[in-house]
Design goal:
Layout lengths: L2 E4 H4 E5 L11 E4 L17 E2 L15 E4 L7 E3 L7 E3 L3 E6 L6 H8 L2 H10 L10 H5 L2 E4 L2 H39 L1
Parallel strand pairs: 3-7
Antiparallel strand pairs: 1-9, 2-8, 3-4, 5-6, 5-8
Amino acid sequence: MNKTKKLNDIAQLQFGYYAPPLEVGSVLYIQVKHFDELGRYNEQMDTFVDLDQKNETHILNEGDILFVGKGNRNFAWAYTKTVGPAIASSIFFVIKPDRNQVLPEYLTTIFNLPKNQIYFQSLGAGSSIPSIRKSELEMFPVPLPEMSVQKKIVELKQLHELEIRLTQEIVDKKRMLFQEVINQLI
């Protein structure tokens, strides 16, 4: 049986950290430009901050979720330590899920569903730069199936993303092959 809980009952929310980005620094400074149009991390490491006493509490932990709270793209992404030590910029909410109740990748899947994307966009509507308030995000209802179902949903998401990536590689190779054939014929 699925139950629903408000986000603030299953996670802690905080704002990302504001700092002017540096070209060189001790910690990666994650910004929206580090994600593609589908909200996938592009592994571009070109902005940093130096770690100090003010920002050390903002270092991301495995499974922290970055959710874009400003602008027209409100996607979510779960941080993984393979990225390296990082701090999220202030455009993000940093969501720290209670892993006894919800898997981070499950939560990002829920946030990124088209129906929820429309919901988040409606929250920020009416201003020149759409912005979701923390209190609105905290009240977001999260469906919470059993942990085993959450794991299956995460596995399904991973398989779907793999299939999309492989399909794109096939399309790219077909395009190159077509161009090579045409070039050989002319």
